[in-house]
Amino acid sequence: MVRRDGMSRFEGSFLGDANRIAPDARLECKVCWHVYDPATGDPVWQVAPDTPFSALPEHWRCPNCDGDKDQFMVLHD
Ligand SMILES: [Zn+2]
């Protein structure tokens, strides 16, 4: 695990705190507003439906803007 203590907190960004993300939570890319929905998965990265954000591959990036996982924020309905 990489510690990110040196980084300042982005509001709503998970910053490795993956266990605080609900399995069915949708997350939005703050760069391009692409939404990752676990119910859909990600056809671009061949991620199966019902894959929680926290279970995405380590190398997963935003399929729309190639942004880092850390750029995603939990969407609250
Ligand atoms: Zn994006």
Show the helix and strand layout.
Elements (H helix, E strand, L loop, with lengths): L26 E3 L5 E2 L35 E3 L3
Antiparallel strand pairs: 1-2, 1-3
Bound molecules: zinc ion (ZN).
Zinc ion (ZN) binds next to loops.
Global structural class: little secondary structure
Report the radius of gyration as a whole number of Å.
Answer: 12 Å
Strand segment tally? 3
Bound molecules: zinc ion
* CATH-defined fold name: Rubrerythrin, domain 2
Q: Please give the largest β-sheet.
A: 3 strands, antiparallel
**How much helical structure, as a percent, in the residues?**
under 10%
Total domain units:
1
Form type:
globular
The rounded distance between the terminal residues' Cα atoms is 30 Å
Number of helices: 0
Strand order of the largest sheet: 2-1-3
Arithmetic mean of pLDDT: 85
Low-confidence segments, ≥5 residues, pLDDT <50?
6-11
Order of helices and strands: EEE
Give me the CATH architecture, please: Single Sheet
**Percent strand:** 5-15%
Walk me through this protein's architecture:
Helices cover 0% and strands 10% of the residues. The protein is mostly loops and 77 residues long. The chain has one domain (21-77): Rubrerythrin, domain 2. The protein has a three-stranded antiparallel beta sheet with strand order 2-1-3, with no helix packed on it. A hairpin with a 5-residue loop joins strand 1 and strand 2. 13% of the residues are buried. The site of zinc ion has 8 residues, from loops. Zinc ion (ZN) is lined by residues 29, 31-32, 34, 62, 64-65, 67.
